[in-house]
Each structure stands twice: as structure tokens, then as C-alpha cells.
Write a structure and sequence with these properties.
Layout: E1 21-26, E2 31-37, E3 46-53, H1 55-76
Antiparallel strand pairs: 1-2, 2-3
């Protein structure tokens, strides 16, 4: 992804989904990432996206996410883990 807040190809047909609940797991060959919405009163999270990838690509994703959050904090200030930031 290019620097900034938008994907390199903003004209694609990808659907954006909000997630406030995340779960990760793995086996010997794959890393599984789940993205969901979970609100007060819900019995359980509503998973809307599950991504299955290799451990190597998961590590790349971690590096991309870390870089993006570091750039975010340099503009908007530090984030507290698990707290909304507005």
C-alpha cells in the first residue's frame, strides 16, 4: 500500500467492512485471521471476513500494519490499545 490512508487502487470494487473484533489462529501451514463486529448485547461476534494465508504472508501483513499505525500515530498522536481514537 502506498503511503497515506487510501489503497493504491481506490477505483477497485473491494467492499469495505468495519471490524471491532479480531481473532487469529494457526496450524502448521496457515494463519487464519477473523474480522467481526461485536456490540454490547450481542451473544457472540458476527464474523464477516475470514482470511487464510501463509505464515510468511501473515508476517508481511503484520509489518504493513505496524508501519501504517506508526505513520498514523505520527500524524494523530499515540493510540491506547483497545480504546477508540477520534
Amino acid at each position: 500500500m502506498a503511503h497515506g490512508s487510501r489503497p493504491e487502487n481506490p477505483g477497485n470494487d473491494a467492499e469495505g467492512r468495519y471490524a471491532n473484533y479480531f481473532k487469529a489462529g494457526h496450524n502448521a501451514f496457515e494463519v487464519i485471521l477473523e474480522f467481526a463486529q461485536f456490540y454490547e448485547g450481542d451473544e457472540r461476534p458476527r464474523v464477516h471476513t475470514r482470511i487464510v494465508t501463509s505464515p510468511a504472508y501473515a508476517k508481511t501483513f503484520l509489518e504493513v500494519l505496524r508501519d501504517s499505525l506508526e505513520r498514523y500515530e505520527s500524524v494523530y498522536g499515540p493510540l491506547a490499545a483497545g480504546k477508540p481514537h477520534e
